[in-house]
Design goal:
The relative contact order is 0.17. Helix 5 crosses helix 7, helix 6 crosses helix 8 and helix 7 crosses helix 8. About 2% of the residues have low confidence. By secondary structure, the protein is α/β, with parallel strands linked by helices. It is globular, with a radius of gyration of 18 Å.
């Protein structure tokens, strides 16, 4: 049996799966009350950066401190899906270890199904939703330090779909390589942009950027992966989400 750990990034108490596969992890725990889960401010960590890195402080902690064969990331309100159950029994639908073991026999990397934008590219969607300077500086960093990734970056930016939420399950050896590359880029971008006048949502820029960078890394390294279903554990207001999408389309951020 493989040693698999999927961290569940959370900042509050929430219903968690009982499967030993999962490790609830309090992200941004530095200076915050202990809520009873493993915290991301032990060992080697960047917990203090949580307002800017979001769930990535949990990923960084897991990368540096967990010894496992496979590493994954989910969220307290967003999980990979296994067998389907009715909505009222949604927690029974969360991917279990036996189900995951079967999937990993066919592939070393599992990702949430892609989000499709249809009417715009990954680049234009980011520019409509966030400050463009983050994307510009990320591209500049890739050009300077990782030029062999530039073709993949351009390919991904032109696509109209992509993996989101920073969710994945992959071999730890691959996760180590990905995290080494990812956090180096983000740290370099961090040195180049001033977040002091941005609102709290936009200060989460490194979480947004990493969602795009995952597909770049996969493309450049020809990583074989499989998309699987995921689910949001609470009801979503689709009219509101649709309106926000349209509003962003016509109001790009500077």
């Amino acid at each position: 049996m493989k040693n698999i750990k999927i961290i569940i990034a959370t900042h509050k108490n929430y219903k968690m799966p009982n499967d030993g596969l999962y490790l609830p992890l309090q992200v941004g725990a530095e200076g915050k009350p202990d809520i009873g889960y493993q915290t991301d401010n032990t060992g080697e960590n960047i917990s203090k950066k949580n307002p800017y890195y979001c769930e990535l402080t949990g990923l960084y902690w897991a990368w540096k401190n967990l010894d496992c064969d496979y590493l994954g990331l989910a969220h307290y309100r967003r999980h990979f899906k296994g067998k389907s159950f009715p909505f009222k029994e949604k927690f029974k639908s969360i991917l279990t270890e036996p189900q995951l073991e079967k999937k990993l026999k066919k592939c070393d990397v599992l990702l949430p199904k892609k989000r499709h934008y249809y009417i715009e590219t990954n680049r234009s969607q980011y520019l409509h939703a966030h400050h463009e300077i983050g994307l510009i500086e990320t591209e500049n960093i890739i050009k300077k330090y990782y030029p062999d990734y530039l073709d993949s970056w351009n390919r991904v930016m032109k696509k109209k779909s992509g993996h989101r939420f920073n969710m994945f399950i992959m071999k730890k050896t691959l996760a180590d390589k990905y995290c080494l590359w990812l956090f180096d880029i983000l740290e370099k971008v961090e040195e180049r942009i001033d977040l002091s006048e941005w609102d709290k949502s936009e200060q989460r820029v490194f979480g947004y950027l990493s969602e795009r960078l995952l597909d770049v890394w996969l493309d450049k390294n020809n990583i074989d992966y499989k998309d699987i279903k995921y689910m949001f554990m609470e009801k979503q207001i689709w009219i509101k989400k649709g309106w926000n999408f349209i509003r962003r389309k016509f109001k790009a951020k500077s």
